[in-house]
């Protein structure tokens, strides 16, 4: 069994990006600038956004963190988005999800200028992705594709089971893996909360992408020998033995599944760090397309 080391791979990608930034500085070019909007003070969201800002600093990007209170109105958020859309100093930006309930998420995502949409969530960019056109790929699926590619895992003609149909992970993952591309060309099955005979389906899988948001849902008896496991889940599970009162668990029961797997991502240190690295990559791409 080989661990798919997302931390190590993401560090390699960040180093590549940092080298690119160094050469931009030598040429007197403006360095990429990422902005992030965080509404409210959800603990996990704050952790993710802070990690994204820290990663920007590490590779030499400029970053701006905009923190808005939980009670922010939809109108005020849309106004802030418009400011970033028209600010020539910002190459790309993200609005951290989830948003408070008074704000319509879809309206917000549609307000982002698709050319600055480094999360790849705007319908124009989702459409471009589905049609095999160049675009910003959503960072988590992009990170998974990159991990499969860098570990040279064969996907062509393989049975891939994507567990979950979220707009951020499951849906784009199912599209990307079925496309004619590196780490694609697979036969894809999507399962979700209404699927029947789940373990019959997962047992046929050569590769499983678990993104259902239920901790340790996929167990060893549900998979075949030599399966490749990508665990996207990250849930805080109460644990009295930990100083902060919780531990992080994936959607995969690591102990039983890793005994059968040929490759497996750990949680933490698997998909999570790859997501951040690919957000940086998208920001670099946005900078290169942004001529001002
Ligand atoms: N919330 C969970 N994942 C993501 C992500 O990739 N981007 C944003 N903006 N919010 C998220």
Automatic annotation (TrEMBL):
Q: Which residues form the Tetrahydrofolate dehydrogenase/cyclohydrolase NAD(P)-binding domain?
A: 138-290
**What subunit structure does UniProt give?**
Homodimer.
Instruction: Please spell out the taxonomic lineage of the organism that makes this protein.
Output: Bacteria, Pseudomonadati, Bacteroidota, Flavobacteriia, Flavobacteriales
Keywords carried by this UniProt record: Amino-acid biosynthesis, Histidine biosynthesis, Hydrolase, Methionine biosynthesis, Multifunctional enzyme, NADP, One-carbon metabolism, Oxidoreductase, Purine biosynthesis
Family classification: Belongs to the tetrahydrofolate dehydrogenase/cyclohydrolase family.
Query: What is this protein's name?
Result: Bifunctional protein FolD
Role description: Catalyzes the oxidation of 5,10-methylenetetrahydrofolate to 5,10-methenyltetrahydrofolate and then the hydrolysis of 5,10-methenyltetrahydrofolate to 10-formyltetrahydrofolate.
Q: Any one Gene Ontology biological process term? A: L-histidine biosynthetic process
What residues does NADP(+) bind to? Answer: 164-166, 234
Tell me the ranges covered by the Tetrahydrofolate dehydrogenase/cyclohydrolase catalytic domain, including all copies: 4-119
Could you say which EC number(s) this protein's record lists? 1.5.1.5, 3.5.4.9
Its recorded reaction(s) are: (6R)-5,10-methenyltetrahydrofolate + H2O = (6R)-10-formyltetrahydrofolate + H(+); (6R)-5,10-methylene-5,6,7,8-tetrahydrofolate + NADP(+) = (6R)-5,10-methenyltetrahydrofolate + NADPH
Q: Name the pathway it acts in.
A: One-carbon metabolism; tetrahydrofolate interconversion
Instruction: Give an example GO cellular component term for this record.
Output: cytosol
